[in-house]
Amino acid sequence: MPWTAEEMAAEAEAEALKEAARNRPPAPKEELVAQLNSAVTILLAPPSGQAVAEANAWLMGLTDTADCWPTCLAALNRATDDGTATALLSLCLSLVRQNKLTGAPLPSEVAPLVHRLWGGAPEATPVRRQACTLLCALACTDPHECDTLLDWPFSLGTGADAPLALHLLQDLAYEVFHRPLQSRPLNGLLQDARSNAVAFLELCARAAPTASAARRSPRRPPRPRPRPRPRLRPAS
Fold first, then answer.
1. Whole-angstrom Cα distance, residue 97 to residue 75?
2. Which of 41, 110, 116, 185 could form an SS bridge with 143, CB 3.0 to 4.6 Å?
3. What is the pLDDT of residues 110-132, one digit of tens each?
4. How many angstroms separate the CA atoms of 195 and 201, rounded?
5. What one-character-per-residue DSSP string does 90-128 give?
6. Measuring CA to CA, which residue among 210, 107, 90 is closest to residue 153?
7. Are 29 and 55 in contact (CB under 8 A)?
8. Is 40 exposed, middle or buried (0-12, 13-18, 19+ CB in 10 A)?
9. pTM of the model
């Protein structure tokens, strides 16, 4: 008996889950995470030339191993300051640029980190910009992932997450235009999303004056009405 459409969809989903499990990167090694954090700390505040050279050499060695991506992501998710997070994001971005993608996460696994770093903030700091760039660079290595990521900015709305949505659209366009080997399929995706992007930009433009006016003129509590003074009766 031929399968129904529902059965075929369920089978395809099960196969996709099996494939994802097979391709899941190994758990990070804690000693490597600690060494990576130490190397980044040295590079951010170099105490001596020798220490910097050793930290650089260790990092270069790590990038050629299968442990690199799990280690970087574990350290990134535990970073407690913007300087460390920015350095780790830059390292991850360099791996994408060098096409060192063994063990790399799916963009959907990086998106929650990006959303957490932005946290509804109105301005783009270096760590937030770098997080957006990494996410879009990862997505643009695969047209399917790029297509999936293109839906996310529009779902963020025109409220507190609008700055993040706008930076995602900007970075996705930049990545597409700077990938000549993959430009044809990715350009097609951008063209398909063009009308949605224009409509979204118009919504953001209409929402911006209202939001800025609200920030400039916070609503004040009503002033209490003065109590009427009692009238003094003349003495009889």
1. 20
2. 185
3. 999 999 999 888 889 999 999 99
4. 10
5. HHHHHHHHTT--TTPPPHHHHHHHHHHHHTT-SS--HHH
6. 107
7. no
8. buried
9. 0.72
